[in-house]
Amino acid sequence: MSLINYSNEKLFDRLLNNKSNKNYWKYITELRKRTEKSVFEKSVELTKSNVAKEKILGINILSQFGYPRLHVKEILKIYFDLLKKETDKDVISAIFYGIGHNNENLTDKQIGIICPYKNHKSVNVRYSLVYAILAIDKTKSIETLIQLSKDKDSDIRDWATFGIGSQIETDNELIRKALWERVNDKYKNIRHEAIAGLAKRKDENIKGVLKNELLEIDDSGSLILEIIEEFGDKTFIPLIEEQIKSNKVLKKVNEDWLLQTLEKLSLPK
User: Fold this and answer.
1) How many domains does the chain have?
2) Is residue 113, in this structure, part of any structural domain at all?
3) Which of 12, 38, 166, 177 is the most interior residue, by most CB within 10 Å?
4) Which Gene3D superfamilies match (predicted)?
């Protein structure tokens, strides 16, 4: 049976009582589309439960309720009210993901409430905090992402580096310093995000790093080519041409990627 034929009650019942989480997000997605008052009120009611599973369900439904989003201010108030007393790490993480879906107009006060969670002992809480403040171009959130870009967990470092590197426009010495610290990270994805952030800011010192990355490029290196394109330095043209020649033998990278980058670099400015 198609989910469209399920009643609201049946969807809530499946979410609350099924032992398997197989269709969890499918059911939630369907309820998010049903913007009638009864679904909204039931979801709000669930956020007040003393049972973590029920509370998280309500939070998850409300996080993307309606398209375009409905009741955003009211939903954010619910989230921040919950944070005043909440100690369950899974509930806190759900709240942060919910905030992240609706963070376009967070106030300085709201940002100030969530940023101290950067020191939370739970990896999941710190990771979800990155999501909550991603693309917020304000001092407090930037400082928090800079700290999280140094986190012991590689996934947190990756997302936080992406956040300060590519998701904001602010350019200052603290951001560049944080990005340079990640250029030598042992994880390739993190290195590439740091390089992308410095290239976006036209940091001339990144040119040598980019050249070295180009020499070692393989099928996971499409981002490096995108970075070279954005950097827009025509001195990379002969290097790309050399890579195209050597790649015909080594076949380390998709040749079309190299050709596309060469074409874009060759365009007149």
Assistant:
1) 1
2) no
3) 12
4) Leucine-rich Repeat Variant (1.25.10.10)
